[in-house]
Design brief:
Layout lengths: L2 H22 L4 E4 L2 E6 L3 H10 L1 H35 L1 H7 L11 H4 L10 H25 L4 E9 L2 E8 L1 H4 L4 H33 E7 L2 E2 L1 E5 L3 E4 L2 E2 L5 H6 L9 E6 L2 E6 H6 L7 E6 L2 H5 L6 E5 L2 E2 L3 H8 L7 E8 L2 E8 L1 E2 L5 E2 L2 E2 L7 H13 L4 E5 L5 H23 L7 H14 L2 H29 L1
Length: 475
């Protein structure tokens, strides 16, 4: 039985438990809109103890928390603008992602939208991660509120069906009378806690990967390709052509090829075009195109994203070992390559080509990922855990290791996402209040601060509406 069945059973049991919990404690519930709030004094003692125990540390940590909050606000605004640009200028990315820009992260979201590039997101993941995110976020607010001698009225949980959230409720009226610095430290504390939790789980994730996984092969994500001028083509699928057009290619596609490829001859060189990619983008036909080179790997059908594990019974565990092993041969030499793909190992008889310099050539490659900017830095962090081009296998049989790996991956991603989104200077987020207080500190005018706050909120809402419109148009 797959884990999905266990997960659905757990979802049903958890839902029944929540219904029972709410029913038996219905006298203590308060309704706010569609939410049911269950207030309790539980956790207030822990908040008071922590803020008293680490008073000295909190005194300087508040400045770190505020600084981190501003940094995340700047990063989030940059990412938000980039996202708007992508939705307007890159419809192919919008179509590939599929998820609307305003969409809560719900269980099974990758499966619902068929996002193959994301791991499974089970209800079990969702409830565990939600607990970690919400509890640390809210308790951090409470700890800094108590540190600034702000009364905590209650703690508790909010319920919406099986979905829940934690909350810490300070005295809001008293908070507005505190200094701007105190308010900023309280507001930024939740985001700061999510950042700390992210760092902790990145470290746990790193230890987990190096402990539970071992390099077991070399992977590649593309065949070698070239940029060519299609007007210079002399044949398609062995049929002579002149003045090549999309209609001519479509007419002569090799649909009997089980590799889904059609050979095109250009300037006495052979290339391949993917049939399904061409058909999908037939209306975007251009004279300049990127085609796969006619080389051993693609001819043999060596699977992209598969793991090359052996060459002539010699094990390879990384791209470097693969490269070193290939160098032992000459162009024209034949080898047996073992490749693992979809948990199946197959053998491929491959004859090396000549790279033009008398060296053996297989015809595979890795997409080059830029290490510049924020995305590049994220790539470098992940590279420290799993070397690009290396296939890893867990050291133990079963799916439990993969289950924990995906759980840790989602834990890091969601904590970082919550930290960023929460600092967006939008009215409903802590970042909105931080933005208001910042303008107030500079202008000393509540009217100007409120105006700036409204303008920023409406601007961001307008941009969100633009993204939704482009998503609806492209989807």
């Amino acid at each position: 039985m797959s884990f999905l069945i266990y997960d659905l059973v757990f979802l049903a049991i958890f839902t029944i438990f929540i219904v029972w919990f709410l029913y038996t404690r219905r006298k203590n519930l308060e309704r706010e809109g569609i939410l049911f709030l269950y207030r309790t004094k539980f956790g207030i003692k822990a908040i008071k103890w922590f803020s008293a125990k680490f008073k000295k540390q909190l005194n300087w940590l508040q400045y770190v928390s505020i600084a981190v909050g501003y940094i995340l606000m700047a990063v989030m605004l940059y990412l938000f603008v980039q996202l708007v640009y992508i939705y307007i200028k890159s419809p192919e990315i919008v179509k590939a992602v599929k998820v609307p820009p305003v969409m809560p992260l719900i269980p099974y979201l990758p499966a619902i939208f068929k996002l193959d590039f994301l791991p499974n997101f089970y209800f079990t993941y969702w409830i565990l991660i939600l607990a970690v995110v919400a509890i640390f976020h809210e308790f951090a607010h409470g700890i800094f509120a108590n540190f600034h001698k702000l009364k905590i009225k209650s703690t508790g949980f909010g319920f919406l069906g099986p979905f829940l959230a934690a909350f810490v409720e300070p005295d809001e009226k008293a908070m507005t009378k505190k200094s701007i610095k105190a308010q900023l430290s309280i507001l930024s504390a939740g985001t700061f806690a999510n950042v700390i939790v992210s760092i902790i789980f990145i470290f746990i994730f790193f230890l987990f990967v190096i402990t539970m996984y071992a390099p077991a092969g070399a992977t590649f994500d593309t065949y070698m390709y070239s940029t060519v001028n299609l007007t210079q083509a002399t044949s398609v699928n062995g049929i002579s052509v002149t003045n090549l057009t999309s209609a001519i290619i479509l007419k002569n596609l090799d649909l009997t090829n089980n590799k889904n490829l059609t050979k095109i001859q250009i300037n006495n060189k052979s290339y391949y075009i993917e049939n399904n990619v061409f058909i999908k983008n037939i209306n975007k036909f251009s004279e300049i195109a990127i085609l796969y080179n006619d080389l051993p790997a693609i001819n043999a059908g060596l699977p992209v994203n598969g793991a090359i594990t052996e060459i002539n019974n010699i094990k390879v565990t990384s791209t470097k070992e693969l490269s070193d092993e290939i160098k032992k041969y000459k162009p024209g030499d034949s080898v047996i390559i073992k490749s693992k793909f979809d948990n199946q190992v197959k053998e491929y008889n491959i004859q090396f080509a000549d790279d033009g310099k008398g060296k053996p050539y297989l015809g595979i490659g890795l997409y080059q990922t830029s290490t510049k900017g924020i995305k590049g830095k994220v790539f470098l962090i992940l590279s420290a855990v799993r070397e690009p081009g290396t296939y890893y296998e867990n050291r133990f049989d079963g799916d439990f290791i993969e289950f924990i790996y995906d759980l840790l991956w989602w834990m890091i991603l969601i904590n970082i996402s919550v930290a960023l989104v929460n600092m967006l200077p939008l009215g409903i987020f802590d970042g909105g209040k931080v933005f208001y207080l910042t303008i107030l500190a500079f202008t000393k005018s509540e009217d100007k601060a409120k105006l700036a706050f409204k303008l920023m909120t409406w601007l961001l809402l307008l941009l969100l509406a633009v993204m939704m419109l482009f998503w609806m148009f492209n989807f």
